[in-house]
Design a protein that fits this description.
single chain, about 750 residues, mainly alpha, Glycosyltransferase, 3 domains, two-stranded antiparallel ribbon, globular, binds lanosterol
Length: about 750
């Protein structure tokens, strides 16, 4: 790839990763505006062309740019094999080349289609130009993923939705496409035949209102005053799931200020392009509750409708003093979140929205605004399908912890000691060592000892990331390949265990970032229309399993430390997991596809618990649960020996078979069967054979269907999974049967 050579991923100590563009001569003497010359335009057009991507076979790109460059930088030809025959060693030998100097494995974390538009719109509203080469490849990415019917889905595997289509439409127009270009005409046709932009779900309405191409009046009240309610009331946003809270925060602030982009010709045109009739004729009150059927996953409840009615009456004359107090609080909170996360913010959605708030409050020259802009690039990722916005500032810790565990389980510590040492350094760096400033005032759980999903500078600890970090640190410590001074010190391992204990809910389960703070009926106030289970942080099988596994490991390493508390936590956790098993023996997985993922986690915790010396009153139930899980898994094995689950499982909450076996699902199923010492080895052999047959000559695996998910309805890429989980399954097989 000729033009890709102008892009390179810079990784920094601690795991920050940013794609840089360095133009060749004479373009390197260009100012951004000079791209608008014959020579410049030709270069950009050819570069865009190189990133054309045919999504008809598989809409999932394979992270080819990073992977190719990582190999080339090490002098390895992309397809080259090292002559290693054994599948496990060969798989690790390939994967080690993708590890960055910082010790983590960078990779594509894109997939959702509502993220980059948030950034493009924030850039437009704040009158901040994204660099031209970035704009060109963001546009290319969007065009690559347009569906045959002219629309875009919620994510790269999804059928067209109003949300996806309106946001790409507006973004592409902002990025310079004309209304009469073919792709735009087809998109507009989709929008008009599906009800027009008044039928875009709430978040879409919000972005359009920021642009000033939708009236704020067409949005149900976002009532900033919710922050002023007594904290004891369940609807206080401090009780919401942190992602809902942190997105609601800037949204409500923008709503309170009625922020709007400066009027412009383009915006006037958009007003006339997006709706079924003239803009002046839109009925904004009716628009508030309109949502296209293509998008509706979580319809407004009766309760929410009533709630909105009451709030909309209040909005006719909001009490000035309350509004002002609420806005001041929101701004202070936005500033706190920015500072606590070094302006990365908890995710891509609030990062872009906070930028707009900070710009509105302090202007373009304020350092806080500038710091925001720098972090935009932490979220952008380049792959063979163009530039996308990642779902987080990366999945650094998560991928590194799994990679290290997989390598260690297969006995790779001698052949790959250097890899594990680097991974250990990253893991030690990533742990949170200081309490977050103002954490109590701004509704944050304690952080010290925790691990985030991405990097230390992001710093929001997560229950299962803390668990995976702790497990990995303990494993590497036991190998004695790292000098004592470079290991995670005892006191921080203990802090991690204590933090995990503090995260356990009364029902025995663990949620994602915090304790479950509100009642389940709060979900009835979920206004998103497109996401399920966003209002509170629910206890999850996966998070609970990871925490149990970590506590079991920790207990072996520190037998005297909080012995009873830890054993009780494990017992209660196991009870929670048992309570989540379905009739057919499976567990629903909330964060990846789907029942094979959930089942893998559940099985891992229960079988490890059974193998420990803890006495369980529920011992027989645990055994039975394992038998049922085995029958479930066996019933889903395909004739070729593999397992394959479709993303549809996540949405429908029923097992949906993929057209083909998938290496990642196969690995989870195999890991589960081996964890529970399933006796019919022939079943396992067949699965392993499938994995081996899918391995490429260089040790890599092909990118198949999408594996990640959130909120039941949105898919997200985990590029590392196609390597890490086959490595893990092959490694477990190697250790067990060699
Ligand atoms: C993530 C990424 C990591 C993921 C695991 C650690 C894998 C999981 O076990 C627990 C949940 C968690 C932390 C998770 C939650 C939802 C996130 C943050 C994401 C899938 C990444 C992007 C997503 C976020 C909500 C996207 C923005 C959309 C909203 C609805 C706010």
């Amino acid at each position: 790839m000729k033009y890709a050579a102008n892009w390179s991923l810079k990784t920094y100590a601690g795991g920050r990763q940013v794609w840089h563009f360095s133009p060749p001569e004479p373009f390197n003497k260009f100012d951004d505006k000079d791209w608008d010359t014959d020579q410049g335009r030709k270069f950009l057009a050819e570069m865009a062309h190189e990133f054309s991507f045919d999504k008809t076979g598989n809409p999932n790109s394979s992270d080819a740019v990073y992977r190719q460059q990582a190999l080339e930088n090490k002098g390895i030809h992309f397809g080259a094999s090292n002559g290693i025959e054994e599948p496990f060693l060969k798989a690790v030998d390939f994967y080690k080349n993708l590890q960055a100097q910082s010790g983590h494995w960078p990779g594509d974390y894109g997939g959702p289609f509502f993220l980059a538009p948030g950034l493009v719109i924030a850039a437009y509203v704040t009158q901040t130009a994204l660099p031209t080469p970035h704009r060109v490849l963001i546009k290319q990415y969007m065009l690559n993923h347009q569906n045959a019917d002219g629309g875009w889905g919620l994510h790269m595997e999804g059928a067209s939705t109003m949300f996806g289509t309106v946001l790409q439409y507006v973004s592409l127009r902002i990025l310079g496409m004309r209304a009469d270009e073919v792709a735009i005409e087809r998109a507009r046709h989709w929008i008009k035949t599906n009800g027009g932009a008044t039928a875009v779900p709430l978040w879409g309405k919000f972005y359009l209102a920021l642009l000033g191409v939708y009236e704020w009046e067409g949005i149900n009240s976002l009532l900033p005053e919710l922050w002023l309610l007594p904290r004891k009331l369940p609807m206080h946003p401090g009780n919401y799931w942190c992602h809902a809270r942190m997105v609601y925060l800037p949204m409500a602030y923008c709503y309170g200020e009625k922020i709007k982009a400066k009027p412009a010709q383009l915006l006037e045109e958009l007003k006339e392009e997006l709706y079924l009739g003239p803009y002046a004729d839109v009925n904004w009150q009716a628009a508030r509750n309109s949502c296209a059927v293509t998008d509706l996953y979580y319809p407004q409840s009766k309760f929410l409708k009533l709630f909105n009615k009451a709030l909309n009456i209040y909005e006719l004359r909001p009490i000035k003093a309350f509004r002002k107090r609420a806005q001041n609080f929101a701004l202070a909170y936005i500033n706190a979140e920015d500072e606590q996360t070094n302006f990365i913010d908890i995710g891509p959605v609030n990062q872009a929205m906070n930028t707009v708030c900070i710009w509105h409050a302090y202007g373009k020259d304020d350092v806080r605004f500038k710091k925001h802009l720098e972090r935009w690039y932490d979220y952008l990722w380049l792959a063979e399908d163009g530039i996308k916005m990642n779902g987080y500032n990366g999945s650094q810790l998560w991928d590194t912890a799994f990679a290290a565990q997989a390598i260690i389980e297969g006995g790779g510590e001698n052949d790959f000691a250097a890899v594990l040492k680097k991974a250990n350094r990253f893991i030690a760096d990533a742990q949170v060592k200081e309490e977050v400033k103002g954490h109590e005032k701004f509704y944050r759980h304690d952080s010290v000892g925790g691990w985030p999903f991405s990097t230390n500078e992001h710093g929001w600890p997560i229950t299962d990331c803390t668990a995976e970090g702790l497990k990995t640190a303990l494993l590497i410590r036991a190998l004695k390949i790292v000098p004592a001074g470079e290991q995670v010190p005892d006191n921080l391992l203990q802090k991690a265990a204590e933090l995990i204990l503090s995260f356990q809910n009364k029902n025995g389960g663990w949620a994602s970032y915090e304790l479950t703070r509100g009642p389940e009926w709060l979900e009835a106030l979920n206004p998103s229309e497109v996401f399920g289970n966003i209002m509170i942080d629910y206890a999850y099988t996966e998070c609970s399993s990871a925490c149990i596994q970590a506590l079991l490991k920790f207990r072996s390493a520190f037998p005297g430390f909080k012995k009873h508390e830890i054993e009780n936590a494990i017992r209660n956790g196991i009870d929670f997991i048992l309570s989540q098993q379905s009739e057919d023996g499976s567990w629903y997985g909330s964060w990846a596809v789907c029942f094979t993922y959930g089942t893998w986690f559940a099985v891992e915790a229960i079988s490890e618990a059974l193998n420990s010396d803890i006495k369980f009153a529920q011992h027989d139930r645990m055994k039975l649960a394992m038998d049922k899980a085995a029958s479930f898994l066996i019933s889903k094995q395909q004739a070729d020996g593999g397992w394959g689950e479709s993303f549809e499982s996540c949405i429908s909450k029923q097992y949906v078979q993929h057209q083909t076996s998938q290496v990642i699902n196969t690995s989870w199923a195999l890991l589960s069967l081996m964890a529970m010492d399933y006796t019919d080895k022939a079943v396992i052999d067949k699965g392993i054979q499938l994995l081996v047959s899918r391995q490429l000559p260089n040790g890599d695996f092909e990118q198949e269907g999408v594996s990640g998910v959130f909120n039941h309805n949105c898919a997200i890429t985990y590029t590392s999974y196609r390597n890490v989980f086959p490595i893990w399954a092959l490694g477990r097989y190697r250790r067990k049967y060699r």
